[in-house]
Amino acid sequence: MRLEVNGTPQELRATTLSDLIDELGYEAACVATALNGHFVPLGLRGATPLSEGAKVEVLAPMQGG
């Protein structure tokens, strides 16, 4: 399926947001996610389906001051 992840088009096999996090190798508990501009909490990722052309943002916390 063709998706846009953090602004970059990608071809992925994931069908849910949780699958996408796993496929891309992120640590699920350590990232925040949004689908088409809407925040998706960790507990709902497995029940959040992806569709062709969806825009996904995966944000990891940064250290610094």
UniProtKB/TrEMBL annotation:
It comes from the Bacteria. SUPFAM superfamilies: MoaD/ThiS (SSF54285). This is Thiamine biosynthesis protein ThiS. It comes from Gemmobacter lanyuensis.
